[in-house]
Each structure stands twice: as C-alpha cells, then as structure tokens.
Design brief:
The complex is a heterodimer of chains A (398) and B (311). Chain A is an alpha/beta fold. Chain A contains 13 helices and 16 strands. Chain A folds into two domains: 244 residues, Thiamin diphosphate (ThDP)-binding fold, Pyr/PP domains (Rossmann fold, 3-Layer(aba) Sandwich), CATH 3.40.50.970; 142 residues, Rossmann fold, CATH 3.40.50. The longest helix of chain A has 33 residues. By secondary structure, chain B is an alpha/beta fold. An eight-stranded mixed β-sheet of chain B has the order 4-3-5-6-10-9-11-12, sandwiched between helices. Classes of the chains: A alpha/beta (398), B alpha/beta (311). Strand 9 of chain A pairs parallel with strand 4 of chain B.
Chain lengths: 398, 311
C-alpha cells in the first residue's frame, strides 16, 4: 500500500534515495541541505538502508567521491546547496563528460557575499552549462518523484548522464507537506538495478578519463552535446512511464490556465505554486493571465516552450538570480533567445526577485504580473527590474 | 604470452608489464621507472585513480593508453576522494551481492603538487575516514608537467621557474614540506619512503602498502632530468645519493613504529648530491653549509624517532 505522510522536501528526497536502494552517499553538510544527508545517515545507522555513507571533508570531495563510486558501478547520491555547489563546480563537468550518472539534490541557496543561507537560484544558474540534466520541483511530492525519476533517466544505458534535482532552500527543504510514498514493488518496477557498462574492473581493464589533444577534444564535446540533446526524448518517455506507474504525470514545460491567456508568467520551483494562486485570483476577476512552470532546465525544452507561449502577447519571466552586467535574469535571456527566430512570439519582460530568501507573497506576484503588463505596453528604460527593492538602487538602465 | 618471474637475489619480479611501452615520459625519467616497478609490485587486481600530472599526461593521450590495469583520471586535486569512492563503492557492491567478492586493491597515484599542495585536504580526509587504499606520491619536487614551477615539496635552494635563482634570490627559500610525517600524524597503519635507486625496497613497500588493511602512504622520490637538470642516465644514481647523503632517508612507519631501511654509518656530504643537478648550481658554500646543517638535524630527529618507536 502506498502511504500518505507528512514530509519536508529534504526527507522526501532522502526517502526516494532509500527506495532507490542507493549504494553510496557522499555528502558534506551545508545549510539548507543538511536534513537530506542527516536523514540518510540515520537510515544507514538504523539499518533501514544498506549503503556506504561517506562523510567527506568538503563538497569538492563529495562529488569526487561520487565519481569514483559511480565508476565502479555503484548507484550514487549526494546533495548540496549554494556555495557548496560552487565549491564542486569543477568536478560537475567531469561527471557529465565522463558519463557518470550521479544524482544530486541542490537545495537552492544564494551565493556569498554578503553571506546568505537562504534561497534563490544563483547557484543553479551558475552550473547551467555543466552538462547535467536539471529539473526544478514545486513541492515535497515532486522532490520525491523527481529524485526517483532522476536515477532512471541518468542511468538509462543510452544516456548515462548525471542529474541535478533543484528545490528551493527553506521554502521546500524545511517545509512539511503531505507526500505519497509508493510501494517498494512499484519503485522496483520503475527503477531496475544499475548496470554501468564501463565499470572499472581488473578482469576487463579500461582507461577512464584520458586526456584529449586538440584533434580529439572537439569531437568529445560534440558527442556530449549530442547525448544531452538526445536525452530529452528519454526524459519525456520516463515522465510518461512514471505517470503510468505512480499516477502523477510531469512535463518539461507545464502550462497552467494558459488557454487563450494574453499574459503569461513564467516561474521555476516552489514560487510556481504561489503564482498559481495569484493566477486563479486574477482569472476570477476576468483577467487574461496564465502561468508556465518551467520544470526541465537542461536540456532546454525549446519546442515545448515555443508551443506553450506562441499565442500569448506578453511573457513575464521571473528570475531569482541576477546576471551582473548582463541582459536581464538568466532565465529570461535564455527564453528571449529561444523565441528570437519565431514569427509569432510574445513580448518578453524580465523581472527579478526573491533573492537570498526574500519572500514573494501572492501580493508580490500580483505586482509582478501588473508591472510586467505595464512594461510590455509602455516599455521601460530599464533592461529588467528587480521587484520589491526598498530604494531606487534597482534603476538599471541598458 | 606466458607470464614469468625473474629471480634477483632473494626477490622474484614478474616479467609482466602493467604500464605498457610507448608512453611519453622524458628520457631517463625516475618517476616512470618507479611507476613501472610499483605496477609490477601491485599486479593485476588493482584499480588506479590518477591525479593530473606527468603520469597522467604521459600515459593516457586519447585515443591510446599505456594502462593494462583499470585506471581512472578525474581531476588534479581530488585523487584521494576519487579513490575513496572507488574503495567504498567496491566494498558496498560486494557486500550487497551486486558484485562477486574479489580482492581488488584501490591505489591513488599523484605527484608532489597533487599531494602536498592542492590535494592535501582530500588526502587528509581519506586518511581520517580510514579508507582501505594505498596512496603513492611520486615526488619530483616541483610542478614538472606544467614547466618546473615550485611546490611545497621543492627543496631549499633549488631554482624553479616560479622561484628562480637570481641576483636577490637563491630560488626556493623554504624547507621541503614533510608529507610522510603528516601521513604519520594521521595514525595510518603504514607509511614509507621509497626510491627507484632501491628497486626491491620500493616494490616491497608498495606491496606492503597495498596489503595492509586501511590507508597506506608511500612517498616515492622521483628524480627528474628535465626539471632538476641532470644527465639522463643518472636517475638511479641520484636516487641513491639522496639516500646516502641523508637528504631523502628510506624508512617505514608501521603502526607508529619507525624503521630505517638504509642506515649508513656515515652520511655522504650533501654537496655530492647537489652538484649532480643544475637546479642547485648557483648555490654558494654558505648555502650548502646551511643545507648540510638542516639535513643533519632532520636525520638526527628521524634517528631519534627510530630509537624511540622502534619496530
């Protein structure tokens, strides 16, 4: 029987790793990720989970240890946040390029300085091009589902890529919500044992991680690009299989009340749920608004996004990260670029907010939609605006 | 091909080569020789995690490889952590019945830069967590792969490209970081120093380190004709001179018990060693005397430890 229990997203992710029967966990504590490794360490200590829990001395070593474990064929899991993700940045590229399917939760956190332990998407955006498959979660149930799904996609023998599951620090990591935990039998049906085809083995010696002279490096990188692009078909297929087994269907781009809506708001992660309530309120008032929840961040779902927004007049993209000196929030510039060549496309407005744990209430999202519409109609001297700033420091002019 | 062993005195050495011919190490490289001997001592049932550096670059240019044993390179600074994952992964997979039980040695290979500088934190962590692995540091006393830049293992007075001897400088102005003692301070069960100038001693220590339960560390002196500016036929001789002068004593520490493996009644003067290499050519008598004094002092300390914590 499946069970409906109260879990914070952190413990939901830990439950998923347990039900996936992970072999190796290597993690270093950092707020707000701590509840994930703590729960897993507890499961190992109590014999609920038979795994090697390696309390490494840094995030750099956490990811490096995961590489070694995955290279001998172990199902491998880790979790980090903000500065920890930055500290292992170098190693992230190696995981994807060496095709080692590690699964990692990122409890999204702001980057120093000033020091902030609270949430935003600066960490996620800084690892955009590391070659990992990346998804965002809206709630604890999704934290469970996406973690399980991540193992299956990453370990697909035609893909073999690491997967990052992003969920918001504190707003999800520390918030208890109802979560449906499935039967182990269903999990086992969804997620077969991991067989790594290139495992290090004295009976079959292989050289992994050789260096590439200039006449080979480009081909190696293009091969990597080909596989992550190809992974989208598998991602969608596994979303479907997940839905067929567990009854919850996910999509790379998830439209909400977008049918016939003139103005669309695009968000990622837990803020999408708050935004949905605002969409409902505005719909009740007769306003023509809808929401796009962008779930899949890498590989970027170009076709799905274009399809979802093509009939809208305005697309307000809400970023939780500043691209310093750049053209706007990183997500908005990505979306502008995805739509540039389209004949029919909405006007894209870039707004930034929710930095370093700043709450975004329903009222704030009302402002985001109203202000976004205004900018789309009248234009703005600014490349983008940061909402909720107390003085006029946000007067950014392009 | 039939694998044979050749008898040298009391020792048997396999004729099998696990580090294949065709690598691109410099002519007369002491590290290549030491690595080849270490591989013979380790045998076939091994997984090697290699840090970025001379050994990695000279043995693994895509699309070819010199490795006849399973080998992985990920980065420069993280080899002990990668090895930690390999060791823990193998252990849990065997325990869970996902892999047949086998005795596979997990070995990390790195240079002095990858060990004494950028990889020290990862190494300390792996020692402290008590992984069952052997760490081999091939010490050629500078960043040779990138062009002879100084490391914390570069000896006092040596001229390197980032601590060059000049009108106002003798080159390196700090004493060599003592990594074997740092390993001992972690209370790991086996620590040893070795040199290709003493091939059987080196092979015995590598074998011992691989067989011991828990972390083991072998620090291997690796003469570098390119970086040290010595003749290409001198690697073995310089390896011996370093021991005979007391500059690089051969010792092992088993469970905290010290043993000096080569103990000459009288050490040769350090000058005999220094004059073989261009990197020390600029040193004046006064500096050589300082080095002599330091070596005498360090050697006496080591002897005192041997006397105090004898095996």
């Amino acid at each position: 029987m499946s069970r409906r229990v109260g879990l914070e997203a952190s413990h939901a992710a830990a439950e998923a790793a347990k039900m996936a029967n992970v072999d190796v966990i290597a993690a270093y504590p950092i707020t707000p990720q701590t509840h994930i490794p703590e729960r897993l360490a507890e499961m190992v200590a109590d014999g609920e989970l038979n795994a090697a829990y390696i309390p490494v001395e840094s995030e750099h070593s956490a990811m490096s240890t995961c590489l070694g474990a995955a290279a001998v064929g172990a199902r491998t899991f880790t979790a980090t946040a903000g500065p920890g993700l930055e500290y292992m940045h170098n190693v992230l590229y190696v995981a994807s390029a060496m095709r080692l399917p590690v699964v990692m939760t990122v409890a999204n956190r702001a980057l120093s300085a000033p020091l902030s332990i609270w949430g935003d998407h600066s960490d996620a955006m800084s690892v955009r091009d590391t070659g990992w498959i990346q998804v965002f979660c809206q709630n604890s149930q999704e934290a469970f589902d996406m973690t399980l799904w991540a193992f299956r996609v990453g370990e697909d023998p035609t893909i073999l890529l690491p997967v990052m599951v992003h969920f918001d620090g504190f707003h999800l990591t520390h918030v208890t919500e109802p979560v449906i935990l499935p039967e182990q039998e269903k999990v086992d049906r969804f997620l077969p044992n991991f067989h790594y085809p290139f495992a290090l083995d004295p009976d079959k010696p292989m050289t992994l991680g050789a260096f590439a002279p200039p006449d080979i490096y480009s081909e190696a990188k293009v091969a990597q690009e080909m596989v992550i692009r190809k992974s989208k078909a598998v991602i969608i297929q596994v979303f479907k299989e997940f839905g067929d087994i567990f009854g919850r269907y996910y999509h790379p781009v998830e439209p909400y009340q977008t049918q016939g809506s003139k103005t669309l708001l695009l968000t990622m992660g837990s803020f999408s749920e708050t935004a949905k309530t605002v969409i409902d309120m505005k719909k009740d008032r007769g306003e023509s608004v809808g929401l796009i929840n962008l779930r899949l961040w890498r590989p970027f779902p170009f076709e799905e996004l274009r399809r979802a927004v093509k009939d809208a007049e305005t697309l307000i993209v809400f970023d939780r990260c500043i691209s310093f000196g750049g053209p706007g929030g990183p997500v908005s510039s990505e979306i502008r670029s995805a739509l540039y060549s389209e004949k029919e496309k909405p006007k894209v407005v870039s707004l930034v907010g929710g930095l370093g744990g700043r709450d975004m209430s329903a009222k704030d999202f009302e402002y985001v939609i109203d202000r976004g519409r205004e900018v789309a109609e009248k234009g703005s001297e600014e490349l983008y605006e940061t909402v909720g700033i107390r003085d006029k420091v946000s007067g950014i002019r392009g | 091909m039939e694998i044979q062993s050749i008898k040298f005195g009391k020792n048997l050495v396999t004729t099998e080569e696990f580090l294949a011919e065709g690598h691109t190490f410099c002519t007369g490289c002491g590290e290549a020789l030491a690595l080849r001997l270490a591989c013979k001592a380790l045998g076939r049932n091994v997984i090697i995690a290699n840090a970025t550096g001379c050994t990695e670059v000279c043995t693994s240019p895509l699309p070819v490889t010199s490795w006849r044993v399973p080998w992985i390179h990920t980065l420069f600074e993280n080899t002990a952590a990668t090895a930690s994952g390999i060791e823990a992964g193998l252990k849990i997979l065997m325990q869970k019945g996902k892999m047949p039980e086998k005795d596979i040695k997990c070995v990390a290979v790195a240079g002095d830069g990858g060990t004494t500088d950028i990889g020290l934190q990862a190494l300390s962590g792996a020692f402290e967590r008590n992984h069952d692995f052997l760490y081999l540091c091939f010490d050629n006393e500078a960043y040779m792969n990138t062009g002879i830049q100084r490391s914390s293992a570069t000896p006092y007075g040596a001229s390197t490209t980032t601590a060059p001897a000049g009108k106002l400088s003798i080159g390196q102005t700090t004493w060599k970081k003592n990594l074997p003692e740092i390993a001992v301070a972690h209370n790991v069960p086996y620590v040893a120093t070795a040199s290709p100038g003493y091939p059987f001693d080196l092979m015995n220590k590598v074998k011992k380190g691989a067989d011991v339960k828990g972390p083991a560390y072998v620090h291997i002196f690796s003469p570098c004709p390119t970086g040290w500016r010595h003749a290409t036929d001198l690697a073995v001789e310089i390896g011996r001179l370093a021991v005979e002068t007391g500059i690089f004593p051969l010792y092992e520490v088993e469970n905290g018990r010290y043993k000096l493996n080569v103990d000459r009644p009288r050490l040769k003067p350090v000058e005999e060693y220094l004059k073989t290499q261009g990197r020390f050519r600029h040193l004046l008598d006064e500096e050589i005397a300082r080095i002599q004094e330091h070596v005498d002092e360090e050697y006496a300390k080591l002897k005192a430890k041997v006397a105090c914590f004898a095996a």
